[in-house]
Amino acid sequence: VDGGGAVILVLSILAAIALGTIVITLITRVVRLRRTRRRDRLVAGPRKRLVALLVGGDDGGLDQLAGLSPAQWRALEPIAVTMLEKVSGNARHTLALLFERQGVIARALADLRRSRFYNRANAAETLGTLHCRAALPDLGSLLNASNEEMRVVALRALGRIGDPAYAEAMLDTLVHDPTTPASLVAYTLHQLGQQASPTLLHGMDHPSPQVRLAAITAVQLLGAPGSPGVCTRVAHALRTDESTAVRQRAAEALGRLGTQVALVALLDATSATTQTPAVRAAAVSGLGTLGARAAVAPLCVLLGDDEYSVAHAAARSLLRLGPEGRTALRDRSTGADRAAAHAAEAFAITTLGDRRLEGPATIPTARRIPVLHEST
Amino acid sequence: MNTAPEWLRDVLGTANQSLLWYFLAVNTIQLALCLLAARTIVRHRRRVPFAGGDDAYRNSLTPPVTVLMPAYNEGMCVVQAIHAVLALHYPRFEVIVIDDGSTDDTFEQLRLAFDLVEVPRVYQPTIPTRGALRSIHLPATPVGSEPDTLLVVRKDNGGKADALNTGINLATHPMVCMVDADSMLDPDALLQVVKPFLDDPLTVVATGGIVRVANGGTTIAGRLIDVRMPRKWLPRIQVVEYLRAFILSRIGWSSLGGLLIISGAFGMFERDLLKEIGGLNPDCIGEDAELVVRLHRAMRDRRADYRVTFVAEPVCWSEVPATFRVLAAQRRRWHRGLFEIISRHLAMVGRSRYGRIGLVVMPYFILFELLAPVVELSALILLPVGILVGAVDLTFAWQLATAAYGYAIVVTLAATTTEELCFPRYHRWSDIGAMVVAAVIENIGYRQLVAAWQVVGIVDAIRKRQSGWGTMTRTGFGKPAARSRPRHRAPLP
């Protein structure tokens, strides 16, 4: 091929590729449109029946929907899955029954043992959403899968099913792979409910800081001490744990646990000599969450703290302590020092809330406090 | 002209040969990035059913986010942009709008729309800022779950980076998302862009999202409800340009662990890390990209295990220039920014300490991004001169044109096909026709024009001309809200 021929050849190839890309684009568009129209056509009737079934107005609906053709069910399934995540009680039970009768559970259980990652992950997700207890052993073993994503999907599925017997195995995923998100482990553990508390209590003594963090976070999410000694153990973690992240989370958790033990531990943790600024700020916020009036006086002192985050958190916590906190903020907002600045900032928000409730006509003339600069 | 000296013919012949190889290389890399991006998007979409997106929304441990929206003379669209952000599907977030000394009615629009009142605030400038803070405002009528879900800050003009630094100083949440005031986010955009931080909290330090062209679409309440190709050809060309050069290319680089640019229009970062590295550089025009390069540098210097990722799904819609004048200013500015970034971080190039960023990505950006307009314009001069002096023949000229333009058109068409296959947003048949024509014009005509502006940008950078905020004539996303009579509120104590 001479030079001119080569150019023509290359140009022709490029033109063919360009044309090919346009044709692929057009074919993709046509296929998608046809598929969408077909799905809409197939799903139109079953969707109405499904809604009627869920609101309890169609007694024979379950049998009819269970008898849908595979094509119709494939079209309806995504809608049914979306509904499954939104309904509860009888409607959920009926929907789960429909999935079972359509063979979804049997297929997903089989898929859990297939080698392809996508099959297993989709199956785990489906079984978790359906709260399928029959899948628990397989999902439990997937917590040790070599694929990190697979472990995470299994973890979420186990959380949804909510069997406390798997709490320890779920916590152990952090031991096998410390890169597993501790927040996800904590969230799924809290889905197991208060029955997981003994495992969480045990987890707080684990050598791995990630495990301790997840355990305390799960306790925080549960919001109430399920087992005796949980609050004391979290308070102990706040005082002695070597990890700042764990101590910080312990302070946040104590705020939600709401006991006398929590109050004492949180007040101790506000001390500048024993804790880092992040932990102190978390403890101060915890006092606000706790809502104990006994914290008003110490928080007023902390308004003048050298650490911006601590002083800021103290002002915001006082906001949450009811009339006593507001009065303290108002009293401390006069002046020109750091404490007054933080108090004024928080008090302005309460005034704003009053305006919202009372309307503009009742607003008293307010004194303007400019932006207050605080050097680093 | 065949009487030209032998040495001149040799030089021109070699130069033209080099140009041929250069264009072949740049287009092949672009095509490879496009294919890599397609693979990444397909993988991402296959994972959506079990990615736990709903769990991320329900989980109270999902980190709260501060959305920073710097605004300078954005009176036309800032209110809609805020409405769009406030309507985002995300468990807990605050929005800080920083009015950087606007000379138009930006603040007045905000005051009217959100019934703003001035409030006191303790300001701790952890990152030093230039423009003095004038005042801070909260809406008197609720716009979110918390009283300070929306915070409007007025400051003296100091540039976009300075405005963002002010916002970072005021941010109360651990994650910071930077969004342009001329942009609109899709409802799940924030949730999706924070997802990598949830999945891999120990290593992910920054994420970027897809920015696409909003021109031509229909918006209601700050939400783009009907996406269509713009009516004017200039924005249409930018639609395909964004697809190829900014979306697929970045997804491709991200999959290789070499994402160097996160658009200032939509990026998420850890607040404390931003403070540690000193925030955005107000002396650099491409402050968003410079921030990411500096982040890479800081993390590599610490020998930290980290990731900067680009999320294939979330979409931020932004208005692109519809006139040549505004486009010219934008591209000059962008290229000047690129020059400044490369020159500031030249020490990273070729050093193994900076891994693939120093060894692959930055050399690529120097050769195929920074110098691309120079090469582009050189080709327009060297090829005709080469033909005139007999250094190259017409056959070679065709080869060069094919490599430079034909191949590039194919790459752009491949990008549009990828869009149709992976995340189709343009649903009209006429949009496909418009994209095909735009793919041709983008490479023959538009590209050369942009190259000329980019070269001016390089000259500006070398001459160190003064520059502030980029000027952008907005048409707005839809009908502006009816203006009500101004009401004056007393400032709060």
Can you put this structure into words, describing what you see?
The complex is a heterodimer of chains A (376) and B (493). Chain A is mainly alpha-helical and 376 residues long. Chain A is built from 20 helices and one strand. In chain A, helix 19 (322-332) crosses helix 20 (338-358). Chain A starts with a helix and ends with a strand. Mean pLDDT of chain A is 87; it is low at 359-370. By secondary structure, chain B is an alpha/beta fold. Chain B contains 14 helices and 13 strands. In chain B, helix 1 (6-47) packs parallel to helix 13, helix 10 packs across helix 14 (429-463) and helix 13 packs across helix 14 (429-463). At the A-B interface, helix 1, helix 6, helix 8, helix 10 and helix 18 of A face strand 3, strand 4, strand 5, helix 13 and helix 14 of B.
List its traits.
heterodimer; A: 376 residues; mainly alpha; 20 helices; extended; B: 493 residues; alpha/beta; 10-stranded mixed beta sheet; two-stranded antiparallel ribbon; 15% strand; disordered C terminus
User: Topology as H/E string of chain B?
Assistant: HHEHEHEEEEHEEHEEEHEHHEHHHHH
Mean pLDDT of chain A: 87
Strand order of the largest sheet of chain B: 3-5-6-2-1-7-12-9-13-8
> Which stretches of chain A are poorly predicted, pLDDT < 50 over at least 5 residues?
359-370
Approximate strand percentage of chain A:
under 5%
Query: What structural class do the secondary elements of chain B suggest?
Result: alpha/beta
Give the H and E element order of chain A: HHHHHHHHHHHHHHHHHHHHE
Radius of gyration of chain A: 29 Å
* N-C termini distance of chain A: 74 Å
Q: Tally the helices of chain B.
A: 14
Low-pLDDT residue spans of chain B: 478-493
Outline type of chain A: extended
> From the structure provided, what is the oligomeric state, counting identical versus distinct chains?
heterodimer
The tally of strands of chain B reads: 13
Helix % of chain B is 40-55%
Task: Say how many strands of chain A there are.
Answer: 1
